[in-house]
């Protein structure tokens, strides 16, 4: 299954739209997960760091009894992430894509319907514990999402403040 999630990356004082595609390749019972997560369209360093943050964040999720949900895919599938377009170069501000990657993974395992994300953009960095961390360029990301005609943009609560923009819901 492939899920596309809208996001943006900071480019100077403006944000450029990107699509984060996540593909989950399930392994059969008894087989080993061979790759974990691989990524294209972002630097190797950013891909490695995103893998560590998203993996740790998802594996820190627990049900009310304290158990790891069996549906978390890092133990049951190889993940491929593609960020397009690969130009302009997304250097230095790629960590804001963590939430989009996690949303794509969670959508692929059926935690919510495609309609929940189709008119939305997501930005934010994940901590190893699963907290959504603040990022730079929130106003630019909101403006970018509005220019794409999206209905909602999800931003980190830790960025503080209340963001309002005509024509788009900021959550």
Quick overview:
The chain has 171 residues and is of the alpha/beta class. The protein is 22% helix and 27% strand.
Folded structure, characterized:
- With 171 residues, this protein is an alpha/beta fold.
- The chain has helices spanning 44-59, 98-108, 138-147; strands at residues 2-11, 14-26, 37-40, 77-84, 120-122, 125-126, 132-133, 152-154, 169-170.
- The strands form three sheets. A four-stranded mixed β-sheet has the order 1-2-4-3.
- Helix 1 (44-59) packs across helix 2 (98-108).
- It starts with a strand and ends with a strand.
List the defining traits of the structure above.
alpha/beta; 3-stranded parallel sheet; 4-stranded mixed sheet; single chain; globular; 171 residues; 9 strands; 27% strand
Which radius of gyration do the C-alpha atoms yield? 16 Å
| Unreliable segments of 5+ consecutive residues | none
> What is the strand arrangement across the widest sheet?
1-2-4-3
Counting H and I runs of at least 4 residues, what is the number of helices? 3
List strands and helices in order, with pairings.
Blueprint: E1 2-11, E2 14-26, E3 37-40, H1 44-59, E4 77-84, H2 98-108, E5 120-122, E6 125-126, E7 132-133, H3 138-147, E8 152-154, E9 169-170
Parallel strand pairs: 3-4, 5-8, 8-9
Antiparallel strand pairs: 1-2, 2-4, 6-7
Helix pairs in contact: 1-2
